[in-house]
Design goal:
The protein is about 10% helix and about 40% strand. The chain has about 250 residues and is mainly beta. It has a single domain, classed as outer membrane lipoprotein receptor (LolB), chain A (Clam), CATH 2.50.20.10. β4 and β5 form a beta hairpin.
């Protein structure tokens, strides 16, 4: 009996339908399903994303540091400067039940219960396009971190609203990514709802996580975000999900 593998918490986590991609170029449905289930193939991860924006105000860079441990624990630190002494950063921490945030710029914090999901928005008898995805471990809604780790909304609400094509593969910071392009996807923002707009994503062939997201308008690259660090099944200490606040922080709620 000594050769039996002991049961762990990981054994009760949902299993992905697709373990790995084949050697050939996958079709879009297979690729999107593989990416959607990426978080189910890991027990924890560390990810860093560098995001560049170019607009009328000039260029800006934002750095996203993500630590995630199933089920439920996540921390996202968003920095707008690489200066270690800069206070221009935000922290989001979730434990599956409560969500805490802290803005270092204005020393404000929040602590609230996680909102329950809409039921049955992910029911199997609903049309696929109408379903929402309930992540195993939640991240800030609408954030870059959420799009890279939980790309279902990006696929459904953006990419699939325009003609799609698999462009092939390219290297993204040492990872082989399958590149997909959506031509002039629909948008609720009038200024970017134009025929010369395209959105490209790169999906890591090994893990399924997004490692590249870019937007081009009129031939100009206006937005690009890429993963610069991805560690799957990383050992993350409990302290990574703690949020310590000083006495001068203002609690909004």
């Amino acid at each position: 009996m000594t050769d039996l593998v002991p049961a762990t918490d990981a054994a009760i986590l949902p299993a992905p339908a697709t373990v790995a991609l084949g050697d050939d170029t996958p079709d879009l449905e297979t690729l999107f399903l593989f990416a959607r289930e990426a978080e189910l193939r890991v027990r924890s991860l560390r990810m860093m994303i560098e995001e560049h924006d170019s607009n009328a105000k000039g260029e800006s860079i934002v750095y996203h540091e993500i630590a995630l441990r199933h089920p439920g624990e996540a921390r996202v630190t968003t920095r707008r400067s690489q200066d270690p002494l800069s206070s221009d950063y935000d922290i989001w921490v979730g434990d599956g039940g409560r969500i805490r945030t802290f803005s270092a710029r204005d020393k404000r914090a929040t602590d609230r219960a996680k909102r329950p999901p809409v039921v049955p928005a992910d029911a199997s008898d609903m049309p696929r396009r109408a379903r929402t995805y309930q992540p195993l471990t939640s991240l800030p809604a609408g954030s870059t971190a959420d799009a890279f780790i939980h790309p279902h909304g990006l696929f459904r609400n953006v990419l699939t609203t325009g003609p799609l094509a698999v462009l092939g593969t390219r290297d993204v910071n040492g990872r082989e990514a399958v590149m997909v392009r959506s031509e002039h996807p629909r948008s609720t923002k009038i200024l970017t709802d134009r025929p010369d707009r395209r959105v490209d994503v790169g999906i890591d062939r090994a893990t399924g996580f997004l490692v590249h997201l870019s937007e081009t308008i009129g031939g100009d690259l206006t937005h690009v975000a890429e993963v610069t660090l991805l560690e799957v099944d990383a050992v993350i200490p409990d302290s990574a999900f703690e949020l310590h606040l000083s006495s001068d922080v203002r609690m909004l709620y």
